[in-house]
């Protein structure tokens, strides 16, 4: 905390030099959901996540003047940027108890269907939510498979994470001790590795102007090919799994009926797409 | 859409200029695949360039430009894209829409198995692919860093 005060003093001194305004905002209520008893580690982690979030969505000088530690946001920026920050924080608080619901659908498409569905490698943003169900139905007709479709609800600016994982342990190799004294025995020790197969989503969402929702989103999907290939060694059998990992990392703003599709060509004749939508939703009962 | 087209489209967008004013891009469009033309037209519309007043018709290469634009429009219509209320990307015809705005993105897809790994990374429109093969004790690495 002392180092933070020192940093704050340095920032204040610099602010006086270049004429920028310095403001301190208490955002503990926002990043912890008003929980007074939030642990320091949680507060600090959420502060860092919020700092990255705010940097991603801000521009110019403001981006360089943001520091957030222990639920205290320090902003060194011109007046107009300070107003933008105040407005952003006010908007989150005015959101009341409404949650932000984010849906992430992962699809696997055959190669030919990719272009026919209007997709290209990278990001496609022209798809709209009212047309989404029809689009997915058409994708299914083209041979697409919906791999997973979780929804995650969170409050504005509160980081959220969901993971649905299946742990797979296997013998990766054998460590051999040729001669262990005093008996002179040989020891063969299996090296066990663990894979996490499934889906993990991490996000931080906020409310922006024109009813837009800003998302800092990371989606990781891991799949282990079945059956798991095995090799026979002189000490025993080892497994050599083929693992496919898809990772999408993005900052984006979505309107109420907007969707974003992230797509990539797989290494076989398949294409993968991640469809992201977000909306405001009433709090869970 | 190919990386070169994508890059030029974004360069033009950064300059707040109509991408079709770029002669190199027009030349690239004339030789582009129909799929690329379609993707270009959609991306241009989504970026808001379509809302700008059309540049005054000029000499020479403009004919190519008109041909490319007409071909893209014909393709969109033939595919049922861009007609009001139909097709998955009918929003393209609505002109510039403030959202969604993708500020940055990175997609990474990798497959790893015994002695080999393949990775594709798409970062803000640029595509990188790499492949590694291990043969016996030797490791052969091949990587390609390019925009497609």
Plain-language structure description:
The complex is a heterodimer of chains A (285) and B (148). In chain A, a hairpin with a 4-residue loop joins strand 14 and strand 15. Chain A has seven helices and 15 strands. The radius of gyration of chain A is 25 Å and the shape is globular. Chain A is α+β, with helices and mostly antiparallel strands and 285 residues long. Chain A starts with a helix and ends with a strand. In chain A, the strands form four sheets. In chain A, strands 4, 5, 6, 7, 14 and 15 form a six-stranded antiparallel β-sheet that branches. By secondary structure, chain B is of the alpha+beta class. In chain B, a hairpin with a 2-residue loop joins strand 2 and strand 3. In chain B, helix 2 packs across helix 4 and helix 3 packs across helix 4. In chain B, 28% of the residues are buried. The C terminus of chain B is likely disordered. At the A-B interface, helix 7, strand 13 and strand 14 of A face helix 3, strand 1 and strand 2 of B. Strand 13 of chain A pairs antiparallel with strand 1 of chain B, so a sheet runs across the interface.
Uncertain parts of chain A? none
- Kindly state the percentage of residues in helix of chain B: 25-40%
SSE-based structural type of chain A: alpha+beta
What is the mean pLDDT of chain B?
A: 62
Task: From the alpha carbons, calculate the radius of gyration of chain B and give it in angstroms.
Answer: 19 Å
- Overall pLDDT of chain A, averaged? 87
Rg of chain A, alpha carbons: 25 Å
CA(first)-CA(last) distance of chain B: 8 Å
- Element string of chain A (H = helix, E = strand): HEHHHEEHEHEHEEEEEEEEEE
Number of strands of chain A: 15
Find the count of extended strands of chain B (DSSP E, 2+ residues): 4
* Poorly predicted ranges of chain B: 49-63, 76-96, 136-148
Q: Report the portion of residues of chain A in β strands.
A: over 45%
Query: Helical content of chain A, roughly?
Result: 25-40%
The major beta sheet of chain B can be summarized as: 4 strands, antiparallel
Quaternary arrangement of the chains shown? heterodimer
